Amino acid sequence: MALVIFDYDGVLADTLDDLIQFGQEACNQLGINHTVTKDDLSNLEIMSFATYGRACEVPEHLIDEFVKISLRLFAEKETPPAIFDGMSEVIKHLSSKHKIAIVTINSSQNVRAFLIKHGLESLVHAVYGVDTAGTKAQKISLARERFVENGEVVFMIGDSLSDVRAAKEAGVISIAVTWGHQSLETMLRGKPDFVVNSPHELTEVIEH
């Protein structure tokens, strides 16, 4: 048995269009004259709504407000985001043998709404969102302390450079996925342990 930790945005949830749209809406509400594009996300050293806001030229004194607006827009969305093709089956398979957790910069409320929509809520043991104190590495460590009893392997699956670095900092195995928000070139700077190009490859890596 392993502990398998997923990032949310860009790994489970196809939120790129939402992130661009909501980032633009937040900029517009704050009076920031910036056209938001995927590039604002793809090159971030640290993936968070705060660093996203800075990439969108939001001044520092308005960053907290940018974060609040973005999270609120996600929460107010009528339907939770789509799940990437194949991810639902992968989670169902892995949950039959392993423990599943999510560590994310999004809110736990938004993640739980997504899990409920896609029939996965009962398969995920814990969600550590922006509402949980600590860095991503600290949240990975929290999950490990809670769920790992006998030295089982821990995997962190992410789509950003900061996910890979958080896994390294927490001392767990990092898996970078190429269908998310950041380019492979950016993620490779963190030297991930594994790179996968499709959800079913996750099962191969975790159960090899």
Give structural attributes.
208 residues; alpha/beta; Rossmann fold; 2 domains; 6-stranded parallel beta sheet; 45% helix; globular
Task: Outline the structure in words.
With 208 residues, the protein is α/β, with parallel strands linked by helices. It folds into two domains: 3-14 and 80-206, 3-Layer(aba) Sandwich (Rossmann fold), CATH 3.40.50.1000; 16-76. The protein has ten helices and six strands; from the N terminus they run βαααααβαβαβαβαβα. The chain has a six-stranded parallel β-sheet with strand order 3-2-1-4-5-6, sandwiched between helices. Strand 5 (173-177), helix 9 and strand 6 form a beta-alpha-beta unit. Helix 7 crosses helix 8. It starts with a strand and ends with a helix. The model has no long low-confidence stretch (mean pLDDT 94).
